[in-house]
Design a protein that fits this description.
single chain, alpha+beta, Immunoglobulin-like, 10 strands, flat
């Protein structure tokens, strides 16, 4: 009886292992589009049309993006691809199906570097660590039906930096 149980267990393990090995990882082309919005940062007050245009996502040409393995951005995560958008903010990249990838902007591609405080700007290291660890887009690549990677980056004014407090002179 124990011998039959052992044989049955071996058979079940073999079936499970052979079933799992049938997952085929393919190289899949993933497409994306990167845009940017901007704050109005001073000077002559622009028209309502210009203010509206600043808030409307515009193609981000020549934007560098890193792709790392995993659902969050870690310094130890492997960079699989570095790419740059074209003049219309588009990109295309070949990735392996079945894998989870994080898309991050260039400053998140390498080790975390917290800016040094200056006379006018004090930086919040905890905020930087949190912002660094979040992927800008996470994608589990499937063999078919992958969404277009759409990311919008917002550029604030220098006197309202992310993770910082500015106390210097303001623009006119």
């Amino acid at each position: 009886m124990p011998r039959r149980g052992f044989c049955l267990l071996c058979l079940l393990c073999t079936i499970t292992i052979s079933g799992a090995s049938k997952i085929i990882h393919k190289n899949i082309t993933v497409k994306g589009h990167i845009t940017q919005t901007l704050d109005y940062c001073g000077g002559a007050m622009p028209s309502p049309e210009v203010l509206s245009l600043l808030k409307t996502p515009q193609a981000f040409a020549q934007k560098v993006i890193y792709i790392k393995i995993g659902s969050s951005n870690k310094e130890s995560a492997t960079v699989v691809k570095k790419l740059m958008t074209d003049e219309q903010g588009n990109f295309s990249v070949v990735l392996t199906s079945g894998m989870v990838y994080s898309f991050v902007e260039e400053w998140k591609g390498g080790p975390l570097q917290i800016p040094k405080d200056t006379e006018y700007t004090k930086w919040d290291p905890a905020c930087f660590r949190e912002r660094y660890s979040k992927a800008d887009f996470v994608l589990k690549v499937k063999n078919t039906g992958n969404p277009v990677v759409n990311i919008n980056y917002h550029k604030p004014c220098f006197y309202r930096p992310y993770c910082g407090e500015y106390s210097g002179p303001l623009p006119p």
